[in-house]
């Protein structure tokens, strides 16, 4: 395995300042530090000292005044205030709610913030590695990750924070294309920090008044964008698209056979669901969990572009009915996981209407195109769906996790899932109980996933999201045109090429993109563009890098 | 409705410094600011100016130099550096990944951090209100929460952050007893901030190497504590106890009838599950979702202390078998939601063994007692369970959300839930694929819930968690003894008393505790002690406050 150092400093400088060409961490630290006033310079230095700090962990060097000697580690003055608090004498029990814990708490949290700020700046720097890859066993040995009976000092805790980020994947890096969720939005991040600070639960208005209102406002807005009249309907933010899809299936079943809630599947005829062969695996997972069974999910043929073929859907529905089965659910996909294909929603809506079947649109990936006046036509017909999954944590780059299920019929979620626990959803509360949303879902406690989306929306406006999405599609078109006629691409008949290139990518850490086979096609790279930090140059870099790493194959 | 101001300043001072007796926000700000060196003083001032800031939003006052005039608002010098950056001229598009966005990004994030630090210090201050309560319609009008096409300035975004915290429930407040999850741990908070910053997904080692390893290490440790040999077994962190319980039921069903995954419930006989009448509603919710039906969840009688009666369990199992049903799942509760009762696990384990039924322990609330040498006997027998739900976000006060499902049999989760999506779980990756945990659960993407627990565990050690839990139980005993013989308590025969007192609590904002009826008992207060910030004095306060607010009833 290639054993590169942490820093991958080349000609390109983090500061974009051509006058310096740093080639050591310390030089970079100084250069960066000079750019900022106040304590910010020192923030940039913090992360650079992970190596030193790790050594210090075994044998902390203490100065006469009780402060640790490590400090910032820079040769030049950069206003580091780290030495003023001696974290190696402090423990978690010295922090709030400890008596007089205010100042220590603020200093500790500020130190963690400094570590994070340095990581953030570094993540956007193309001259750093996307990943400092190590195999599991190797990573286990590189640090002490064990849990023990005795507490560690806050200094040790800070070291763990640095080490965790050192080996993290820089998902914000402009050359990270590996998943549908990429990038790191600064307003979204701030909102997620604030969410953690508020540390509450979405189940009742009582404990999350603002967040419950913001969820209400945002879901309504999303329904308006879908095209449901006056934004009427229902919805909830759930822990990911797979769960949102499962909720939709649960609702469809309940709508057709409400007795299933009490009596179970033995009270209903054999139900069958339909989705394209390119759809996400969560449809089958949901069917397995709900007691429907994966064999009752009928996979509809897709065309060569990955779109569901409506005539095949109708044929299979009729066939199922002839067998005495009850078709209850069609999941169309708006943006398939591998090809990014959009099923023809209008034609599917016609078929669902004709056969009286619940139409769900899994827009986990492609739903965000609704924000773009230029591209939303790809989802024409979504307004006729009964439900839709839409994950703002994908193409809208909201921090993980943020997935919405939108439902056209009001009240159905509540009646499908409610158990009316009297300890939580007391009916004699002083406020309007429709704001207690906890009984609409299977979760009891529910993480606050709304604030980051809401705050980003305020910060960008709808037009800001639109611009971001349009740019992703523009980059995607650029990539397509670039490789269309390029020699070597689409010429791969050996399924081992992509995995080898990918493994090399991770070891060099220069970029990350996913691969897989599909149907009769051998392993190919699945290029995802959702990263707001990516530019045309990053696309060029990726193409060159794949060629470079695969040269000998 | 009582319309108190934001600050509830009394004789008690945030600083615990008796020399000052501030009675206005500004005086408090100055007093607090004097305590801290550097920029920290100013941090305390930030939140105090929400009112002013909100006004500024409509008509921002700009100084000649382009900086906003609001600044800190203090009369005294307190090192405020806020005026140096003019956020009212900046937009989200000025932040990273924008060119030269580093400094602006750091300044913006630092400003958000300052707002949060002030909120944190305030949250632990007994002289502030737990909640600044407003009815939904009123809260909707108090601020502009709408989403629009156009972007807002970063100044507006900061105002939204302040407003959101102003109306938030202070779940860290020492007098917040309203839910099973209370308190705010500083190391846990730091870890959650870092988790947001790393912004990745738990499904593969590839994108979350450190977090996947930490989950592995922590789950193993938890299994050792349960008492499973050498910590063998399996597990996952899921989005809450309700989902963990549902996962357990799913596994139990699959273990007995693996064909259910493909063929659905129509391929199996009628299954029945058993749980106590005091168990959490998620057992029924899970049964409804999985197609088992709520009628197939048989509620076993509990004794007057709320514990499941084993002889009734056995009787109902035999009865079910006689009807031709198949008992497949018993969910015992370790710490019921309302009484905090522990079912007799040893006796239940005997019955499950005799009848060959999967034994699950819902220890969402009480599982944490396993960390206490003094109290863990209450869970004797848990080592014989097939699975256990354990929510560190409850009595261990880990930030929301953090729920573990632990499973004794290795490999079962994978075979029950896997769909082997070839775009994610490629079998030709370069590393050990057992670290790709995503196919063990129903979720596809999975939020990183592990780091906060792991970092807190490192910071406290097992003995630190033990001390925290022992203290909660000590406070609980103190409360019990105090009200045991007190006049007026347990004398309430009118179910309207508790809701009225609770409504008054929220309007005054002095404390928060939940209430409900149970069986033939009318509304009573359910006192939860999981808040590490609570002391004996807070218990005294609560008792007095309930009396004061209910005096005229």
What does this structure look like?
The structure is a homodimer of 553-residue chains. Chain A has 553 residues and is an alpha/beta fold. Chain A has 2 domains: 25-128 and 151-159, no CATH class; 171-198 and 235-415 and 453-553, Aspartate Aminotransferase, domain 2 (3-Layer(aba) Sandwich), CATH 3.40.640.10. Helices cover 40% and strands 10% of the residues of chain A. In chain A, strands 2-8-7-6-5-3-4 form a 7-stranded mixed beta sheet, sandwiched between helices. Chain A has a 3-stranded mixed beta sheet with strand order 1-9-10. The longest helix of chain A is centred in the last third of the chain and has 35 residues, at 450-484. Chain A is globular, with a radius of gyration of 26 Å. Residues 1-83 of chain A have low confidence and may be disordered. Chains A and B meet through helix 4, helix 5, helix 6, helix 7 and helix 8 of A and helix 4, helix 5, helix 6, helix 7 and helix 8 of B.
């Amino acid at each position: 395995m290639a054993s590169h150092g942490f820093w991958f400093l080349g000609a390109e400088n983090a500061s974009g300042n051509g006058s310096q060409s740093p080639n050591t961490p310390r030089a970079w630290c100084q250069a960066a530090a000079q750019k900022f006033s106040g304590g910010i310079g020192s923030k940039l230095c913090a992360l650079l000292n992970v190596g030193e700090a790790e050594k210090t962990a075994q044998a902390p060097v203490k100065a006469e005044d009780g402060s640790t000697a490590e400090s910032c580690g820079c040769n030049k003055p950069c206003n580091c205030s780290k030495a003023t608090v001696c974290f190696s004498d402090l423990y978690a029990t010295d922090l709030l709610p400890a008596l007089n814990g205010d100042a220590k708490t603020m200093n500790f949290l500020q130190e963690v913030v400094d570590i994070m700020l340095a990581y953030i700046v570094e993540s956007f720097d193309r001259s750093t590695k996307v990943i400092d890859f190590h195999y599991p066993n190797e990573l286990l040995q590189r640090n002490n990750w064990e849990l023990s009976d005795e507490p560690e000092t806050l200094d040790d805790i800070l070291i763990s924070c640095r080490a965790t980020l050192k080996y993290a994947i820089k998902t914000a890096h402009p050359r990270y294309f590996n998943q549908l969720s990429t990038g790191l939005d600064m307003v979204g991040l701030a909102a997620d920090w604030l969410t953690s600070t508020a540390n509450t639960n979405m189940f009742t208005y009582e404990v999350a008044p603002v967040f419950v209102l913001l969820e209400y406002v945002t879901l309504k807005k999303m329904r308006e964008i879908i095209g449901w009249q006056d934004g009427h309907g229902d919805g909830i933010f759930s822990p990911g698209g797979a769960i949102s899809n499962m909720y939709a299936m649960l609702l469809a079943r309940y709508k057709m056979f409400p007795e299933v809630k009490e009596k179970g599947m033995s009270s209903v005829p054999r139900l069958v669901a339909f989705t394209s062969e390119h759809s996400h695996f969560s449809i089958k997972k949901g069917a397995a969990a709900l007691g429907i069974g994966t064999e009752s999910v009928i996979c509809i043929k897709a065309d060569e572009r990955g779109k569901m073929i409506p005539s095949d859907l109708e044929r299979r529905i009729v066939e199922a009915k002839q067998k005495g089965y009850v078709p209850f659910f069609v999941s169309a996909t708006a943006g398939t996981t591998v090809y990014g294909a959009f099923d023809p929603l209008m034609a599917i809506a016609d078929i669902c209407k004709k056969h009286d079947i619940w139409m769900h649109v899994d827009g986990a990936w492609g739903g965000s195109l609704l924000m773009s006046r230029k591209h939303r036509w790809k989802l024409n017909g979504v307004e006729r769906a009964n439900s839709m999954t839409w994950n703002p944590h994908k193409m809208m780059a909201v921090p993980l996790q943020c997935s919405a299920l939108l439902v056209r019929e009001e009240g159905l979620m509540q009646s499908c899932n409610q158990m009316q626990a009297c300890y939580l959803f007391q009916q004699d509360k002083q406020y309007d109980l429709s704001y207690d949303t906890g009984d609409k879902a299977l979760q009891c406690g529910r993480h606050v996933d709304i604030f980051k989306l809401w705050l980003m929306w305020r910060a960008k406006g709808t037009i800001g999201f639109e611009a971001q999405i349009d740019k992703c599609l523009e980059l995607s078109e650029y990539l397509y045109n670039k490789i269309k006629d390029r020699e070597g691409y689409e010429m791969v008949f050996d399924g081992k090429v992509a995995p080898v290139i990918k493994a090399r990518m991770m070891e060099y850490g220069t970029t990350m993109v996913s691969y897989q086979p599909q149907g009769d096609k051998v392993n190919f790279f699945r290029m995802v563009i959702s990263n707001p930090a990516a530019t045309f140059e990053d696309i060029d870099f990726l193409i060159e890098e794949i060629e470079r790493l695969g040269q000998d194959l």
